[in-house]
Fold these 3 entries.
Entry 1:
Amino acid sequence: MALATWWASDPLMDLAPLSNFQVCLSVNDVQMAAINHLTVAEVEDRRQAGNLPYVGYMGEIPVTYGWVATREASIGELNLIFPIPVDNRYLWDFATLPEWQGRGLYPRLLQAIVQMEQAERLWIIHAPENRPSGAGMQKAGFQAVGQLSFQNDSSIGLIPFDQPERARIGAALLGVPLIEDGLSPCWRCVDQVVCTCQRDPESCSCAVEIR
């Protein structure tokens, strides 16, 4: 998984406004549960844990959403749980409704959250095979700082890209080591597994074969 960030000193990319598109901090738990495929109780639990739900509307129609963690966050795929420092935010569980995809809503939602939260640093991850998600983050102005994956001993580490200082801070946030090698070629592949990413990284679907 790629870790990306936006800092208060970073510029936001210039995106043309979309007519009738607006982003609000949701106060409607019933609506949030419906579009997020959760129960109302699950939405309430997320709020109680310090998570803020944002919804993007086209006119009055909710079309895209995402959550902002302010106290603690988790990455279930990697079994990571970590606290969120003051003036930091972790963005998670974003989606655009299928009939509204391909219209550039995701990067505009991200930018709206950046502007509304006014945090010093925001962090977000995406799976490398989810190219639309990565492209949307880049269009919004987020910068990828490292690749998060399993090491050969099944622990988790972060390989930095071209911003080692930001990668170091990101690794500290997640509570994982910053390393230069020894990662599995795919974030889903651990220990006795060979991933097809090694043979065809561009079309990885994480099909695996046991040695």
Entry 2:
Amino acid sequence: MRIDIMTLFPDTVGDMMSESILGRAQERGYIKIRTHQIRDYTVNRQNQVDDYPYGGGRGAVMQADPLYRCWEHIRQEVGAPVHTVYMSPCGTVFTQEKAKQLHADYENIILVCGHYEGIDQRFIDECVDEEISIGDFVLTGGELPAMVVADCICRMEPGVLPDPECFEEESHWSGLLEYPQYSRPAVWHGREVPPILLSGDHGKVARWRKKQSILRTFHRRPDMFAKLTLPGKTRAEKKFLQELEDEDDAFRDRNTPKMG
């Protein structure tokens, strides 16, 4: 998988994307992350990439032509179909499901980082396939969102992480938040690790973790919990639900449980 990031701050973005897990994955050839300085594609001596907006208003707008020249250079360099994403607060909100879709559908992705008051709509209309936001808030530029999206997509590429379980058991993958995690020592500041995690019984540990994921999602993200279809048909599933209700009063008293 290859991801190209169009930005006014390629060194900052490139340094971050070359550290730790993603850095090692690039060294081993599992992924490619390239940054491109948009200013290198201007045609004026000042390397100007922005100008006043038509119609008036505060701030400046990034011009279409430098963006297009940079985008066209990447497209020719890749030599294969590319999917272009503009990081924009007007875009659809990024989720784990969206990350899965991008990873599954595209081998080459271009992420465009805007600045100032945004970018010329004509570049969006001609070159951008979709707009993505990482949340309902506004940042000073698209670099942080681009790095978030690149990180989320690349970690699913085979070889980047040691095993698919490294991301498949994490929050949001299956519609649940991840269970609590603990490490040594067994007692810290008087707080003990749950005894079941020290039992060595992998079946009981897996069952405990599943319960904790459901309860954590129920308490912290009721919007996610409302979308779940909990088991409850077989005897084992009914027993599992009963255990959840016995362990958590609020879960037992929930108003509209959604059973399968």
Entry 3:
Amino acid sequence: MAINAIQVLLCDDHPMVRMGFRQLLESTPDIVVQAEAETGEEAYRAYRKQPVDVIIMDISMPGMGGLAAARHILEYNPIAKLMILTMHNSKTFVTRAMKMGVKGYLTKMSEPDELIRAVRLVDRGRSYIEPSLAQDIAISTIAGDQDLIDILSPREFEVFTALADGFSVKSISSTLNLSPKTVGVHRTNIMKKLDADSLVDITRLAIRHGVITA
């Protein structure tokens, strides 16, 4: 390991996946996985306990999930260098993550060398989006396409995703550390903003925008 190796916090809820990415990252002498986390909560605690150079975060994890964890980390340290590595290739997730302050976004279908390159760029303070995703966003921007879900606040988006996944208000309040009343208010606001009449409409919208799979 090089003396000035890039220290990484690797966050994914699948041990075998983490092992594979750790081996890939540490196959080069200038990157070392300093710590691992299985949930968003663990990722947040691990970063506060021992800050690293780059955080690699999955989106779909137990508990608060990757985007919520990213938001908490960036609120704690606005200059944290954080990148997403996920199966989600939805423009909704990419644009929301980048607006939040995330520096990089790759899917798990990326080539191995692309992950190494992205980590190095993010460590240097640059942004990196997987080329195919960046192209989709550019085309949508030129065409003037607007994502309806963009009108949701970060917290509303977290509640929206959980509702679409079928979680109850009680479960969401526990996971996001909110009162059931607050979750209920968010649900009402979400349905009004999205012109949704029921939770079925919420689920359909989430599927249509690639937030969840059918």
